[in-house]
Structures are given as C-alpha cells and as structure tokens.
Design brief:
- The chain is of the alpha+beta class.
- It folds into two domains: about 15-100, Winged helix-like DNA-binding domain superfamily/Winged helix DNA-binding domain (Arc Repressor Mutant, subunit A), CATH 1.10.10; about 120-210, SCP2 sterol-binding domain (Nonspecific Lipid-transfer Protein, Chain A, 2-Layer Sandwich).
- About 40% of the residues lie in helices and about 20% in strands.
- The protein has ten helices and eight strands.
- The protein has helices at about 15-25, 30-35, 45-50, 55-70, 85-90, 95-105, 120-130, 175-185, 190-195, 200-205, and strands spanning about 40-45, 70-75, 80-85, 140-145, 145-155, 155-160, 170, 195-200.
- The longest helix is centred in the first third of the chain and has 13 residues, at about 55-70.
- It starts with 16 loop residues before the first helix and ends in a 5-residue tail after the last helix.
Amino acid sequence: MVEKVNPPKRSYGQFCALARALDVIGDRWTLLIVRELLPGAMRYGELRTSLAGIATNLLADRLRGLEADGIVERHIGDAGVVYRLTPRGAALREPMEALGRWGVPLLASGRGDDAFQPRWLTLAVPALLRGRTASPAVEAGVEVEGFLMTVRIDETGPSAFVPAERPRTVLTASPDVLVCLATGTVSAEEAIELGELEGDPAPLRSVFAPSP
C-alpha cells in the first residue's frame, strides 16, 4: 500500500509553545509512532505491523521527520537497525498520558472494528493510575489477549512493563475490563468475576485500590 505523503512540513507561524510543538508532532501518525516506541526500541517491520493502516512510504517519511526533529534516532545493533526515542522524545510520555486520559470517554462507544495492540496498555494503564503512590511497592500481573505485563505502584507512581518471570498474581481479562478497572468503573472483585484470576487477589486489590 502506498499513501500520498504530504509536502514538506509547514509551520503555523505562531510564537506559541503549543503551536511550535504541533509543528513537530502534529502530523497524522506521528504521535502513534512515538506511542509504539515508548516501551522500547523497535525495528521498522515491527512498527509497520503494529501500526495497522499506515503506508510504508508514509511511515518512512514520518520517521525521517522525527529523526530530523531530534525525537527519534536510529541505532544499529545485533538485531539490525532499530528505532528508539531520544530523551527529548521520551519526554513526550507525560503529555501523551494526559491526552490519553482525556480520550478515555471516547472509548465508551466500544472497539468495533478498530485495531488494537495489547502492548498499548503499557502506556494507558499507568496514565489512568497517575497520581497514585505506594510504599512499600505493590504489583500484580495482567494478561490481555496473550500479552502479559506487570502493573506496579511505588513511591514514584505507577508503571507497567513486560516481566522477566510470570507474576504470582495474574488477572486475565479483556481490554475493556482492564480499562474500566484502571478508571475505577469496576472494582477488583468485579474484574475478577469478569475475567480469570491466578494467585492471591490481594496484590490486585492493592494496585487497583480506589483513589482516596
């Protein structure tokens, strides 16, 4: 599939931080490429597979633009060429989490035929749990459509990552149930009833405890 690539990027021509930011990341697909790279480096083919619907020439064009703007860099390693975020690119996590929280009500209409990758939840879940802290740290595993991740809350806040070993507590659930659990729409007990729990439910209750 080949998609027409837009002409060279144009500026809003405004001396405004938001306008200048949109000059860099406001094009279609750009923030979604950043979303894919937030968990870690990816090869071009992996990006192409994960971003269903993007034409290969448009992906290449967006990556070139992100490189030129200092958001993404190419790295040659044992796996070949991979793309990863620069520190400047990684700094987009916080505003993207805020935008994701703003967009949660738009999910109410359901998934329909929209594409979905479970790995996107490593960004979405911490964003929805933002502001919560715990000492000592608490964590629990969540499995969605075969993708396993650990959700952890410590003194610095929430995070989500792919664990090296299977956690002792794992909730297997649909993406809808997990989003509802993270937003507080359903309780841990309700999520367990709607899904399947492996192990002790206490860590799950601690991670997804209602906000005070």
